[in-house]
Amino acid sequence: MGAEGVVLADNAGYYATYTTVLLVVLAGAAFAAVAFGANRMLRPTRPTREKLLTYESGVDPVGEGWAQAHVRYYVFAYLYVVFAVDAIYLFPWATVFALPGFGWATLVEMFVFIGFIAVGLLYAWRKGVLVWT
């Protein structure tokens, strides 16, 4: 057998391992299709006018479903995400900072990180985003 035959045999064995993955994916898709099909056949369907109305918090819908939100709310959400990510990085850093090998370089890196967060907060403050009016 030549070198090409060995490579083809190796590739066949390599791709044969994916048949198991393909079979599991197909079995999962078949299970989902059977479950959804059985649900559709077995459930009762009696649509009425009341059942087809939009329901939200027990209040009957009045007017249109379109409502605009002020961009300030999105900025508050963005600021929350920024500070949540900041907390995610600060807590693990604080727990390992006292361990040997984490010296001044780690402290400087954390102050650089906090500096970036502070610049973002300063920018939001200067733009007047943090004023709730």
UniProtKB/TrEMBL annotation:
Q: Which EC numbers characterise this protein's activity in its record?
A: 7.1.1.-
- Which keywords does this Swiss-Prot/TrEMBL entry list? Cell membrane, Membrane, NAD, Quinone, Translocase, Transmembrane, Transmembrane helix, Transport
Catalytic reactions on record = a quinone + NADH + 5 H(+)(in) = a quinol + NAD(+) + 4 H(+)(out)
Topology term for the membrane: Multi-pass membrane protein
Record's subcellular location: Cell membrane; Membrane
Chain segments annotated as transmembrane = 12-36, 73-96, 102-125
The record ties this protein, via Pfam families, to: Oxidored_q4 (PF00507)
Q: Name one GO cellular component term.
A: NADH dehydrogenase complex
Asked if the keyword Iron-sulfur belongs to this entry, the reply reads: no
Q: Which InterPro entries match?
A: NAD(P)H_OxRDtase_bac/plastid, NADH_UbQ/plastoQ_OxRdtase_su3, NDAH_ubi_oxred_su3_sf
Which GO terms of the molecular function aspect are on file? NADH dehydrogenase (quinone) (non-electrogenic) activity; NADH dehydrogenase (ubiquinone) activity; quinone binding
Q: What is the role of the protein in this entry?
A: NDH-1 shuttles electrons from NADH, via FMN and iron-sulfur (Fe-S) centers, to quinones in the respiratory chain. The immediate electron acceptor for the enzyme in this species is believed to be a menaquinone. Couples the redox reaction to proton translocation (for every two electrons transferred, four hydrogen ions are translocated across the cytoplasmic membrane), and thus conserves the redox energy in a proton gradient.
Record family assignment: Belongs to the complex I subunit 3 family.
Fill in the subunit field for this protein: NDH-1 is composed of 14 different subunits. Subunits NuoA, H, J, K, L, M, N constitute the membrane sector of the complex.
Q: What is this protein called?
A: NADH-quinone oxidoreductase subunit A
